[in-house]
Amino acid sequence: MIGLLTRIPWTKWKPKLFDCLTGYTRPDLIADLIAGITVGLVALPLAMAFGIASGVTPQVGIYTAILGGFIVSILGGSKIQVAGPTGAFVVIVSGIIAKHGLSGLLIVTMMAGVILLFLAFTGLGRAVKFIPRPIVIGFTNGIALLIASTQIKDFLGLPMKSVPSEFMERMRAYGEHIGTVDWTATLLGMASLGIILLTPRFVKRVPGSIVALLAGTAVVAIFNLPVETIGTKFGGIPGGLPSFDVPEFRPSLILLLLPSAFTVAVLSALESLLSAVVADTMCGDRHNSDAELVAQGVANLVVPLVGGIPVTGAIARTATNFRSGARTPVAGIVHAFTLLAVILALAPLAKFIPLATLAAVLFVVAYNMSEWREVGGTLKLPFADIAVWFTTFLLTVAADLTVAVEVGLALAALLYIYRVSETTTVAMVTQSYIERGHNHSLQHHRIPPYVTILRIHGPFLFGTADKLGEEAAELQHFRPIVILRLRNMTAIDATGLHALESLADRLKRSGRILVICGARAQPRVFLRQAEFVEHIGVENILPHIRAALERAERVHEGFDGVGEEFAHDIQKTSL
Questions:
Q1: Which domain holds residue 257?
Q2: pTM over 0.70
Q3: Which of 325, 359, 467, 513 has its CA 20 to 30 A from that of 107?
């Protein structure tokens, strides 16, 4: 038994915190303290809003942010990741509560934690990369629309006893009650929305949601406005620590709740790893996916003990953490203690927080997570990709997220098989084929010292597109001109396209130029249809490596070094 334990590669799940504490300095601590307090204040209104929108109490959202955020920062595999309740879970959590009650939700969350640990320890967690981008965009669009639709009641102050769980029924109910709008609540909500949107333009380091929360609460408390608040709906937020209680587990519920638990686990893994990738891009680090999934699994196992809802990495809070100067996971720990201090010291004042203000906060969250800007690009893709996106979006809104993901994955699998079969060719080798190959062969050309060449070999579809990001993780090792050779890339889809666009944008920001050469028929048509050619410039799309090296030589004559000057020179050369 001891021999077996010694053979287990425990370093695979080593928390990032352990590495960061080596050589930890006083300036690091100060930076993490400032960032953690800032993120904690940002998380406060979001945690309450997510709790209310999910069908639980606001304190449940805060307890989830405190305990989940603390565990993920201690055990996670990302330097600056911040975890807690997020908008992605609002729809599925409220649906589980509607079907199985709060006890069912707690069991689902714990089952999802077990699934996440299984994914982490077996390495299967990386399979979330097999979810194509049109599906991710589709259910993100759908979730955003559903979140916004659930907040109309509080934003307008409609005197409805309950909000229907289904989208069309909900909109019909709103139409029936539209004549009962509470203009005091509506004006308060609109003012809160304006504050959230305008504050960053004047004071960049102060979160607009906090300003709106403080202003809305103060106005309600001082002028005793007759609007619905946390106090009138929930009786306020209790001070002190939450009580621990193990949910009652009935084996007969396992099969019934397994689909929901699987959806929660997949969504948690997907959002956490996406957030970790974003964090890597910002701070120049590389996260440990297995350690991150272990942390998410443990967090989702533990938070139900305080009545909490599912936990995942929060992209917006992680970005705020970075912008506030975070250097290590200590900032995430400070964020959790900040929330704990607030709930211990200021809980009595929470009863004055107006629901219209929290609705405004969620409207902004829904818009920011919606990725509506991606829809325009999606509509330029081939019809099959559009069909996958639209089907996922429609089912998310009209049915539920579990069905949307299942059907979307089935469609994507069929599309994958179709694309691979479509691009597999069998042909006779002729003398002209050999002669044409000379222009593509690297053996016939000298690679100049100012050029880095990357190649993609095989289908560049969902499930493989992340390999480009891994290879290009450290751009400081790249030369001023990067040639991406697509001679042996047989097919590409929307996920692969997104990877190419991300690489092109990162190279441009670093003052480098991307040149693409040798694209075959399907990738060439796909990139042109998706307007990627315009994204990097038609002059940087070449037929073979010989032309690409000639382009690199011409560009190199116009610049000296890498940086803003170089980027400016490249831009002039490309015109």
A1: 12-375
A2: yes
A3: 359
